[in-house]
Each structure stands twice: as structure tokens, then as C-alpha cells.
Amino acid sequence: MFKYFPHTEADLQHMKRVLGITNTEDMFQVIPQAVRHNQDYLIPSALPESDLRRHMEELGKMNAQKIIFSGLGAYDHYEPSVINAIISRQEFLTSYTPYQPEISQGTLTYIFEYQSMITSLTGMEVSNASMYDGPTATAEAMFMAEAITRRNILLMSSTVNPNIQRVVQTYAKYKGLSIEIVDQKDGVINLESLKSKLNDTIAGVIVQNPNFFGIIEDYNGFSDAIHANGSIFIINSDISTLGVLKTPGSYNADIAVGDCQSLGMPVAFGGPYLGYLATKKSHVRKMPGRICGQSFDRNGKRSFVLTLQAREQHIRREKANSNICSNQSLLALYATVYLSLLGPKGLREVNELSYQGAHYLYDELLKTGKFTPVYDKPFLKEFILHTHLNVNLIAKILSDHGIFGGVNLEYYNPEFQNVLNFCVTEKRNKIEIDRLVSLLGGLS
Amino acid sequence: MSKVMDGIFYAESHEWVKREGQIGIIGITDFAQSQLGSVVFVDLPEVGSKVVKGKEFGAVESVKAASDLISPISGKVVAINDELIGEPENINKDAFDSWLIKVEITDANEFSSLLDATAYRKISQ
Amino acid sequence: MKNYDHLIFELSVPNRKGYSLSKAFAPKYSLSDLPSSLLRDNQPMLPEVSELDVLRHYTNISHKNFGVETGFYPLGSCTMKYNPKINEEIAAMKAFNSIHPMQSASDTQGILKIYYELQSMLSDISGLAAYTLNPFAGAQGELTGLMIMKEYHLQRGDFHRTKVIVPDSAHGTNPASATICGFDIIEIASTPEGTVNLELLKAALSDEVAGMMLTNPNTLGIFEKDICEISRLVHEAGGLMYYDGANLNALLGKARPGDMGFDIMHINLHKTFSTPHGGGGPGSGPVGVKDFLIPYLPNPQVKFIDNHYFFDWNKDSIGSVSGFYGNFKVWLRAYVYIMTLGKEELGKVGEISTLNANYVRVQLEDEFNLPIKGFSMHECVFDGLKDTSTGVTTLDVAKRLLDYGVHAPTIYFPLLFHQSIMIEPTETESMQTLDEFVTVMKKVANEAKTDPLMMKLAPHTTPISRIDEVYAAKKMILTYQDYLRENQ
Fold first, then answer.
1. Residue B43 Cα, gap to closest chain C Cα (Å)
2. What pTM, to 2 d.p., does this model score?
3. Is the pLDDT confidence value at A244 over 90?
4. Does residue B32 lie within any of the structural domains?
5. How far is A304 from chain B (nearest CA, A)?
6. Chain B residues with CB inside 8 Å of A147's CB?
7. What CATH code is assigned to A81-338?
8. Taking CB atoms and an 8 Å limit, are A324 and C139 in contact across chains?
9. How many C-alpha atoms does A3 have within 13 Å on its Cβ side?
10. In CATH, what number is assigned to the domain containing residue B26?
11. Cβ of A2 and C341 within 8 Å?
12. Are A236 and A258 within 8 A, CB to CB?
């Protein structure tokens, strides 16, 4: 037998006797012969554990681990070791969605804590239990705007990361919604341009802060214009930065969405990450995903339970506003533990150190004379610079020296020729930054 | 066995409507509330909006189910039962006392296609 | 510590800390240089606790959870099989965790090779031509698959196919995904045997039908014996066949959806391929297609040319459904699982899981209603207790099972029966575990007759007893902030 199948030959014989069959094939007679698969799969033979480990180590070596100096939706922040110890516990790792609250208070408790932290960070009133990632959370916010306003055009700022824009566009296309892009001016969304596009067909407006260029946008005056038009205001933010930046709630946004990867989650080639979605209580019934609420058990003990489930697909079926079922619960635990360890001061310190490092690098790169600013706007940990150097040469030199950074934005949009993205988190020290500067400064 | 009230009209989608002159008073039946279980939320239209016979005008929600409200007649909403917003459980206590909306009837002929108490008893047992 | 009931916020003490960060090296820069209008004017409500506080809190609340390693978890439709530890070890390797998603193809050949090989293996296992691993979960796989279906019709200039057929036994995600994809739903009623009603299907088919979504074996654990005819009818009407892979476990080693006429499908890697459910996620929902649909797969797609793996962006694609490439570390675990089982063992999964389900089924027929007789596949569905004279319901049975250290089966689904109990034992459970489960189920059935009041109040030994769900829905205390306001 095999280590994952506990049946002995004697067990199998006994089980067949109980079923009154001599051959397990008797159970499969219902499958038409024409579609039976009677040959081995074209996959390798079973690998014993030590061979498998060696095989995976070989595959691991085929990836280049580098010092990370770019962001673009995935940020290399510090990962406290406590978190993995907690999320590896089988009680959290292997359990299903907490549909039986009597034996799921562990999961339900952390979801409640997660929702509390997300609402506080975003300045909103209610959060769900998690979405897949920031881009899909943004697409779901778009569906909410449609459901609330019964309108079908969304405005999206051109300063939103193209990775987010692409997902939103895909979701919109098949639902029969359309997206109009609002121009930027000096690297930020242009309020006048936005106002000129607002009319009674506009369901909502999607912006990102900090935006694709790393710039901190200012939404003063936005909600008045958007709400006067009966539209929904959606702000996508990197959750970590909301430890210090003005919140979507303070900007009077209706829906706050974004990624939680920046809460110390490994960059891990794009996933699993975690999307968040928070809104006002008045919109809670249009909100996708699971929601945990507090109640009491029969003995009056404070307890937690999934609530408002009548919104969801397993009850509402084709009338549900969203089809989400599995979410990213374990990552919500990750985020909750991270935020518990860091607390308000630690989160501020992470942002402060990232800010300092990023601004140090920015100034040092300008000093080399090989880079010039693209926009003169405030940023936090991520920024762009223009260079007259050969970008392919830069990529090669950095790569040869074990650095990943200076991603050329031309990859996303041909307009951004020779515009490079840099990002500095609190994990980058002065030696690493000085080395990056001297490598780039030495080029010609 | 759920309660059916005589002298009012019923839709197959389990709403009742009581006629008072030009006004139709609409609610959900005792059978409907018993199927839903504890009602926790009622979503009602705004006063002044129009409802159309056979079309949804709101929803009632319990812990484990949600049901669209289908209007048994067409008309303009002249009143909604505000009390239900705060105390939706009143529907479970007495579904016939807990009206949802009052509408100004546009077409009195629509009543002829509704069920009477005897006919509704047959489909709600 | 059964009575531990704190929230992390309640442990907070001002100025306590649970982190250590590097020293500032460029203090001349400061966040306070930013215009104050861009900064938040209050401190977020986060706890201030020590490392040990955090560890104790989460360890204590973890004890109130039931996992696959706690005990038998026969949750129907969810395939709660053992989640191997080697998968976790590999997923924790730095060589995978430290790679940024925007790194170049030459930096990521190992990961791209895993992507490419896994999609090839899934293609062979399911009888399809190619896969994307980008969808994050089964539901998103459905949505992605339906987008591909829609795009196929649109690019052929066939603009009127606006409807999707879904049997009434389907998972709720099927009709929900079809709506999100902009389709109208035609729901068709099942036969008394729980399978697709061919007459109703024929009546529903027209040149407005884009395709049909089907789970096979279906949510009753029954194989659709007419599957070839169903596919033929749908194809004849110009529609495509979509396979919901939720129940794929039953077919491993026995049959392949592609051979049954399915054109598009998703696989729930967190079910069939052993990746842990994580209290609700992350999952992974790769989507496979027949070769004529490959151009429509979501972007980016992994290609292999001249001994080099790379991401390719196809202009005919439906677009992107994920910020990057899906839940990488979930599909990484699935790859490890397949490599562990190999062709020898993977082919036995369907057989053993089906044997387990039937072994349970035949032993419970005396106490529980079995609406559909005969062999089931990997799961079996009962319609409540046979003896309902005391008023004990399926909910009560499920709750009482918790007292015996067994996770409840899926209840009240499928919706075709009023008292559904859906049991899926999976291949990783031993005969002895199943014997114990059968004993417990019979005991509970007996208790329903002898002590209905005790059953109504069950469970009695769990960290909490039955919870007031009406209070939760009406009060909507959804955050600690709400809780503090309520208890002022």
C-alpha cells in the first residue's frame, strides 16, 4: 500500500464483502466503457520523499534570489517569524470554512479581529473576511457600485496599476459593464477631467493611492463631486501605507479595497496574497464574501458566527452579487498576526523607515546625474525616475549583481520609455542602497 | 398549518394584498414567513416609486434564506411600513398584521387574476 | 483552555511591542515632511502586545478549531483529505518565497517549469489540451471558464448565445458565476434519480444556449450515465460543455472529463490535489480547455520554446483574472502531491475514495433515508433520519456528531432533499475510522429516538454551544469597534 492510503489488503477484502462485491470494478459499471480511462497517467513514477526533496531543491536553484528594489504590487517587507509558527498550526491550516461555529471559534475569532483591523486601517465601517487579491477585490467593488447604483459605466484613473486595470477590464467586459479611463495630470488623477466625465450613467470611480507611480494622491474635493453625481467612490490602497496615510474613510470613499501582501507576506511569485474590501454599513448587503459577526451561544457566552449569509452564492445562487466561495482565509490570519505584532507604532515605523530609505535612494540617484525626476509629487516607499542610460544595460548590470529593481515601465506602457520603478522597504539597509547607487552611477 | 385570512387576495409567490378603495396593502403570507424562518431584514422600495405586477419590489431575508418580494399588483408606493425596518421579526409574529407597502392601484382588473383564500389554502399546505 | 475567550485587542497594553525593526540610517527624511493633509490624523486601532502574548492568544483560539488532523472530516463536496506535510515543507522554501513576481523569465525558470509541467499533468489527468493556473479558487475557475466560453462564441460572430444551462442539483457557485459572466440561467430539474433529465435538457437547448455546466459525479455522488448523450446534444445545439471539477476525486484513475465531451473545466486543487483549505482558503482553481479554446485562456500563459520557459500574452485571450499568476504556493503544493503519488498511486484515488463512500453508505441505510439506491461514487447523500417521530432534524444530528469528535457532514445540500446529509470520507481514511463513524452515526440515530431534547440542545462538549444566528444578523456587530459601542 501507500503512505496516504491506510487500507491493508485485509481491509479491502472485508470492505468488499460488506458491499457484496468481489471486485471494486463493480462500483464503476455506471461509467460508459467508451469513456473509461484504462491506462496510466502520463506523469512520472512516485518519488520517495528524499528524492522529491532533492528534485524540488533543484527546481528551487533554477530561480534567482535577489535583493529586491522594486514594488509594483508586491513589496518585500519584514516577515516576523512568529507568523509562520501560527499559520502552520493544523487547526488553522487544514480546517474548512467555519460553517460549524461550535468547532470553528478559532477561525471565526481571527476573522472578527481581521475585520476590526481592516476597518480601522481603512476608516470604513465594515470589512468582509477577505478576497483573492487587490485587483479582484477592485473588480468586486465595481460590481457593488453597479448593484448599488444600477448604472453600468465605471471611471478608472489612468494612474491605477495596469495589473489592477487589466483584471477590472476583464471582469467588466463579460458582465456587460464599461470602463472609461480618466486622464492624469502631473502623475495624479485630474479632478477636472474626472468631473467632465461624471454623468448619470456613471456607477463609480476607481482610483489608487499611492498610485502606480508611487505618488500619494490627494482626493480632497473628490467625494463631493462623485456623490453629487450619485456615484460610488472606490479607493484602492496598499494596506500597509494606511498605517500613516489619510484613509479612504477620511476621503469619504464608499468602498476601500486593495492588497494586504504588504503586511509582511512573502513576495512568493505573486501569491497567495490577500485582497481586502471594506465599505459603509449601509452597503453591507451588497458586499461580496463572508462576514463574521458577534453573537452569544445558548449559555450566553460571547461567540462568533458567519452572518448575513443570505447575500452569498450558496443561498442566493444566480441572484448573488458575487460568486466568491473560497477566499484567502489563512492569509487573513497572517495579516491579523502581523498587525498584532506590529501594532500602531510598529506599522508607523515600517512606513517611516521605508520612507527614509526610499527618499535617501531617490536623492542619491539624482546626485549621480544619470537620473531625472518624472513628476514632482510626494511619494512614500516607491517612486519612478527617468534615465538617459541604456535600460537593458541597467537591467543586466543589476541582475549580474544579484539585484532586482529599476523595472522599466515601458513593459506596461510604451509611453514610459526609460522610466524606471524603484521601491525601498525597511528591509533594505544603507549598504545595499549605496551599492545600488554606485552600480548605477558607474554606468555611462 | 399556516394561517390564511379570508377576504383578501393572494399571489402564487406568497404575497397577500388587501384592497381598501384605491389603495392596495401588500404583505407576505404566514406560509411564506414560516418557510423563511426568523426574518432579520426587510428591504422596501421608496415612497413614490412604482411597482409592477409580477416584478420584484424588495426582499425579505432570514438567517438562512433570502426571498425577493414580487408585487401582486401594479401601482405607486404611497407608504412603507417603517416599523419593520427596526423590527423585522414582527413578520414572524403576525404576517397579516405586518404589511410591507401601500400602493395606489393603477389597474383594478389585476385583482381578478389573483387567488382567493380558498385557492391559496390549496397551494400553501 | 476551553474557556479562553479573549480578543487580541483585549490583551493590549500601551507601549508593549511584538516586533523589532532595523535602526534608521537616514533620519534627515521623515514622514512628517509630507503635507499633513495627506496623512491620517489618528492612530489605527491595533493591539500593542508582546510576541508571547500573540503566540498564546492564537494557540489558545486554535484549540477551538477542528482540523483534518483533529479527527474525521466527512464534509461532502469538500474532499477533506489529508494535507501532506512535505507539501508544506516545500512551499516554505526560500527559493520559492523570495522570488518577486516581476522578476524576469530567466530569473524564474524553476517556477515556470513547475507551472508548465503541472498544467501538462493536469491536462493528461483530465483529458484536456492545456491549462491556466491563474484562477485563485474553484468559483473563479468557473468564471474564467465561462468567460472563455463566451469569448469563443463572440469571436465566431455568434452573438446571441446568452444562456447557460445549470441543473438544479448544481453548487450555488455555478449559477452565480454564470450571472457574473453576464449570462442568463436556464435551470433544469433533475430526474427522481438525481441525474440530468434528458427531455428537459432537449427542451432547453436552442441557438441561444452558450453551454451547459455540469458536475460529474453530480452533487448526489451519482455518475451521469448519459454523459455522452448529454454532451452530444449540447454540442449539436452549438453549445459547449463545462465541467465543475468539485467532484473530480471520484474519477482519478477511472475516467477523464475531456473524454466525456467536456470542453472546459476547473479543478479545485484544494480538494482533489490535497492542498489545505486554510479555514476557507487560499484555494486554487486551474482551468483546462480543449485545443480549440487555448487562445482564449487568461493572460499571461506559460510557454516553452527552445528550452526556455516564458510568459506569453495572447491578444485573443479573455484578459487577466489575477494581479499576477494565481496562488503560486497552492499550485506548488499540488505539484508536490502529484509527484509524491506518481502515476502508480494517483490512479487509485478514485477507487479507494469510492470504496470508502459505499462502505459507509450500506451500513447507514437502516437508520437514514437513502433516496437514491445503488452504488454512489466518492460521496453519498442521505435525506435525514428514517425515524422522524421525535422531531429530530439533520441539523441536530450534525451538531450531536461534534460531541463525538467527528466533524459534521455537509448538511442541507444538495437542495433536492429537505434533510440532506452529504458524506464524503476520502481515500485517506482507514476502514477503522469509517467503522467508528458508522457506530457513532447509529448511536446518534438511536439517541434521536430516546433523548430528542438532548439532541435538540447538542452539542454539549464543544467550546461553545449553539449560537444565536438571528442576533448576529440583526445586531450586525461586525468589528471590535461595534462591540465596544454595543457594550458601552
1. 13
2. 0.96
3. yes
4. yes
5. 14
6. none
7. 3.40.640.10
8. yes
9. 12
10. 2.40.50.100
11. yes
12. yes
